[in-house]
Amino acid sequence: MEWIERLNKAIGYIEEHLTEEIDYDRLGRIACCSSYHFQRMFTYMAGIPLSEYIRRRKMSLAAVDLQGSSMKIIDVAGKYGYSSPTAFNRAFQSVHGIAPSAVKNGGVSIKSFPPILFKITVKGVEEMNYRIETKDAFRIVGVSVPLDKDIEKNFTVIPQKWQEISANGTLQRLAGMMDTPPMGVLGVSTCNDEEPWRYYIAVSTSQPCNDLEEYLVPAAVWAVFPGEGTNESIQELERRIVTEWLPTSGYEYGNAPDVEVYLNPDPGNAKYEVWIPVVKK
């Protein structure tokens, strides 16, 4: 399928540039989506973060270089983009469990991680409920945090922000401000490549922002998936959207934020919707 072909072309780009800094924005362009969406798709499809995959591939090749040539460790480190021998040593040990010098001496076991090849297996075991909605732009007001280009780092930052605003009363204040659809506390990820990446905890409202931040969510077409449960169930729903629904849906990612709509305040058994911006292929 075209979508899978794009992912595999992106893997080809990674393989061709393992001795250089990998351009995440270029990966997104190859896959026809933002670099944020590419990283998320990759993680769900491959089962490991993109940054870890690249590290494993580099260290696999670095081990071969150390075994099969007279290259010095510092030269191998530089070949794969590590200006610091300490950083290279740390990365190498994280993958192989031994120091580069041990490989140089020979007689030790090392690991090899071959390039990934994506294929689609359509299971269809469990149904997925969704609807397609076209929505006008809407204004949100709330607080935000910057998103790191390495999206794995955001899995710590975002929960901390939710805890912070719940403890200081901001979340309760926001809940009292919502007066326009969508009616719920929103988690909005602005993650296209034309604006700074940020995650907003906000509500849709006509009230003044005062000391809060505001953002205009653009008009877009959304695939809306309902769900309920814990934070883990939201992540599982997002994984299924990317790995099961999107490849066979006739849609691809659109250029608009991802939106989580929390319809009730119970964190242990939340009712929510996941909005994915889409365009017809």
Structural class: alpha+beta
| β-strand number | 9
Number of helices: 10
Which residues sit in consecutive blocks of at least 5 with pLDDT less than 50? none
The H/E string reads HHHHHHHEEHHEEEEHEEE
Tell the overall outline: elongated
Mean pLDDT over the full residue set: 90
Oligomeric composition of the shown chains: single chain
Largest sheet: 9 strands, antiparallel
Span between N and C termini?
12 Å
Which percent bin holds the helix content?
40-55%
Q: What's the Cα radius of gyration?
A: 22 Å
What is the percentage of strand-forming residues? 15-25%
Describe this structure in words.
This protein has 281 residues and is an alpha+beta fold. It has helices at 2-16, 24-30, 35-46, 50-68, 73-79, 85-96, 100-105, 154-167, 170-175, 231-245, and strands at 131-135, 138-146, 185-190, 198-204, 213-217, 220-229, 251-253, 258-262, 270-280. Strands 1, 2, 3, 4, 5, 6, 7, 8 and 9 form a nine-stranded antiparallel beta sheet that branches. β3 (185-190) and β4 form a beta hairpin. The longest helix has 19 residues, at 50-68. It is elongated, with a radius of gyration of 22 Å. It starts with a helix and ends with a strand.
